[in-house]
């Protein structure tokens, strides 16, 4: 099995000014190719560190992917270290990257300055992976490491650009490495806690054939992903994936990178239906999740974040009496919110939330982390069916909001399925 | 200067299933104490890796903070490695953590099982930092490394819990290490691009005294943070921070961890005013940003995400004629959206966005990444003043949305200041 190390170069990650998202994306992609990631490393813009750590990584792994340390406002430390590591004598100009850079700068209305000119220069012993999203090219250095067979990929640090180059990197890896045959099927579920899931499929899991592995990957936004992996030709994996889906029924909503917004979008598109949202405690999070999907305007009409009770009354049509008698965090209120936004925005479905995200605002009767969620469906005769649920979580504000939102979206998903 | 290494233990980060946010938080905190972070490492749940990498880190740095590898569904590999590294003979029970764990499990309605019982067991040569948010205690191991003076902190991997223990860790570091005196002041700005900022303060920056360092920390959501750091007694830093603020005027909106929602909240609270939002292309992101701040219900009434044009007309009161003649992405439409939501939700201020986040939907006249943003103010005489701006970005959907949202919030901030 081929091995890899992922390395970021740059002080901003080291001092915690930004979160490293590149390594996570790169690792997932390598994992899907059946490459074993040995470790991740984040190091400083320092000559000795870069030379020492990259050398060590190249000795230990077949593939090293390094991001960062490049770019017009940087010192040239990283590029010079790459020159040394690759045994290059000096630098050459990448004509392709230079042409791209002229276009990029022209589009930004900036002239080509000396600092930009240097961007397209690369160590002479490297292959360029042209970067169409920024001025620093991706670079490939072969024949490195103790065995003279390891490969180093150097990518810009800006996530947009690094991810844009990942396709080229993976293509290069496939072309140059003899990869193990490995097949993945990821089944995505929501609604059954991880421990209960494990219990439900215990016998099936115990009977998995040799070479097949199951991983549980829980996530507050997505639910629980179940990832099946088979080494070799993948003779069993499709059958096993179908067995797993049958065991878990409606809890299964997708595969691979699917999430609840994607699944709901698919269901609505297939039925030619539309949806809206009325949010209180989730404050816009449900709407932001739904609108992250390109093309959602075909089925997502919009939302009302009724944070103040006056907005619940004036815009959603919640009755003042309901608020007086039951309060905003109540089943009565959530019903009126769900039906109100469905009618006001003229959609076929709606979802609604009202609760207490915290850290303050809870009572013994309605504690922090508690919410009412609802999903509504417009029926053929014009009536509206509203499904409601009370949920209780015990985390910080952000995580409570995330769980309110994902549970509400799952309730909507099930409501669409029953329609 | 004391040094530190940050290490995560656990396959989920290695295979890219989750993004490592703990290391970033820990690094920022260490940085604020004047401790130099040498590198970050993410390793597998593997005995040789854990022993080897933690030993190496303890030889190279004064402080090692390791997160993960603990918890009820884990093998006990990590805890046993900690036993070996610390020279412990065996394990002992932490009575304090045991008591906490009984309460935690009771609150979840779960009985104490054997797997949970083992959670409060720790290597005998360690000090416990009680974890009140989860069942795995924090642990401190002293007298390690080549010099016999390094300290290893082991924390649970769940971010909520690791961050909850950070205060205790920092208190322990302050109590046991002789730290350099270091003072930070971070000035937070929005509206001036980094390169223009640098040009504007060039002379002032060139004249900074010895021992004072300025770092530029740009961020799509927050703007550009300018962090001043002074070693020693911090004799100059307050004066320098005031000089910097004077040089940058209205672009400065806060200090430290302030962001635009925090600053806007402060301005509104001080004036006893309220706000609302009408979002199209930002899809709920502005609302989610505003409602992330605890206590925002005092000034944030809510929003309308008018993703479909019918919602712009029916809920916000945008005129059909406006949409026909100018389209949704126009100055005319954004004015009506901003005024519409301000009047409909009955607030003193509002913010609005309408644009094309991408990747599709652009034209040569209205390309992807373009948006109209607006901020409105209700005047004493009942009239409404609307400030509008056209913005153009060139990134992916998520980043365009982020920039639309932060620029709109900054326009709102400036509109409140001029009021």
List keywords for this structure.
Molybdenum Cofactor Biosythetic Enzyme, Chain A; six-stranded mixed sheet; homodimer; 17 strands; globular; alpha/beta; 419 residues; 3 domains; Alpha-Beta Plaits; five-stranded mixed sheet; Maf protein
Structure description:
The structure is a homodimer of 419-residue chains. Chain A is of the alpha/beta class. In chain A, 40% of the residues lie in helices and 26% in strands. Chain A has three domains: 3-176, Molybdenum Cofactor Biosythetic Enzyme, Chain A (3-Layer(aba) Sandwich); 182-255, Alpha-Beta Plaits; 260-418, Maf protein (Alpha-Beta Complex), CATH 3.90.950. Chain A has helices at 11-14, 22-32, 47-60, 77-85, 95-107, 114-117, 159-176, 194-200, 202-206, 237-248, 260-271, 285-291, 309-314, 320-326, 331-345, 397-418; strands spanning 3-9, 36-43, 63-68, 91-93, 121-123, 127-129, 138-144, 150-155, 182-189, 212-219, 223-231, 252-255, 275-279, 300-306, 349-355, 370-378, 384-392. In chain A, the strands form four sheets. A six-stranded mixed β-sheet of chain A has the order 2-1-3-8-7-6, sandwiched between helices. In chain A, α3 (47-60) crosses α4 (77-85). The longest helix of chain A has 22 residues, at 397-418. The radius of gyration of chain A is 26 Å and the shape is globular. The model of chain A has no long low-confidence stretch (mean pLDDT 94).
């Amino acid at each position: 099995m081929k091995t890899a190390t992922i390395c970021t170069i740059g002080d901003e990650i080291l001092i915690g000014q930004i979160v490293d998202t590149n390594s996570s994306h790169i690792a997932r992609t390598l994992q899907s190719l059946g490459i074993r990631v040995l470790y991740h490393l984040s190091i400083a813009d320092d000559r000795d560190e870069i030379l020492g750590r990259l050398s060590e990584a190249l000795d230990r792994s077949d593939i090293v992917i390094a991001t960062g340390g490049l770019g017009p406002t940087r010192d040239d430390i990283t590029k010079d270290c790459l020159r040394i590591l690759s045994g290059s004598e000096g630098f050459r100009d990448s004509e392709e990257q230079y042409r791209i850079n002229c276009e990029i700068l022209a589009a930004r209305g900036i002239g080509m300055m000396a600092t930009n000119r240097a961007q397209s220069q690369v160590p002479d012993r490297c292959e360029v992976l042209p970067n169409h999203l920024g001025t620093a090219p991706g670079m490939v250095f072969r024949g490195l490491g103790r065995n003279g067979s390891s490969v180093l990929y150097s990518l810009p640090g800006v996530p947009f650009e690094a991810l844009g180059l990942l396709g080229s990197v993976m293509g290069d890896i496939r072309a140059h490495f003899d990869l193990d045959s490995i097949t993945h099927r990821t089944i995505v579920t929501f609604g059954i806690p991880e421990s209960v899931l494990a219990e439900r499929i215990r016998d099936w899991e115990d009977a998995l054939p040799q070479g097949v592995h199951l991983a549980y990957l829980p996530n507050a936004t997505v639910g629980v992903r179940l990832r099946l992996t088979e080494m070799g030709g993948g003779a069993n994996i499709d059958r096993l994936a179908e067995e797993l889906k049958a065991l878990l029924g409606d809890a299964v909503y997708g595969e691979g990178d699917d999430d609840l917004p994607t699944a709901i979008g698919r269901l609505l598109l297939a039925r030619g239906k539309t949806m809206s949202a009325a949010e209180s405690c989730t404050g816009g999070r449900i709407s932001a999740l739904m609108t992250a999907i390109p093309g959602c305007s075909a089925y997502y009409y919009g939302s009302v974040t009724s944070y103040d009770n006056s907005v619940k009354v004036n815009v959603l049509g919640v009755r003042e009496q309901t608020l007086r008698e039951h309060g905003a965090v109540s089943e009565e209120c959530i019903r009126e919110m769900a039906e109100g936004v469905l009618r006001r925005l003229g959609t076929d479905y709606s979802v609604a939330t009202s609760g207490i995200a915290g850290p303050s605002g809870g009572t013994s009767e309605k504690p922090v982390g508690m919410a009412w969620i609802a999903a509504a469906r417009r029926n053929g005769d014009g009536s509206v069916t509203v499904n409601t649920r009370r949920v209780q979580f015990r985390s910080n504000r952000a995580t409570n909001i995330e769980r309110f939102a994902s549970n509400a979206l799952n309730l909507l998903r099930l409501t669409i399925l029953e329609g």
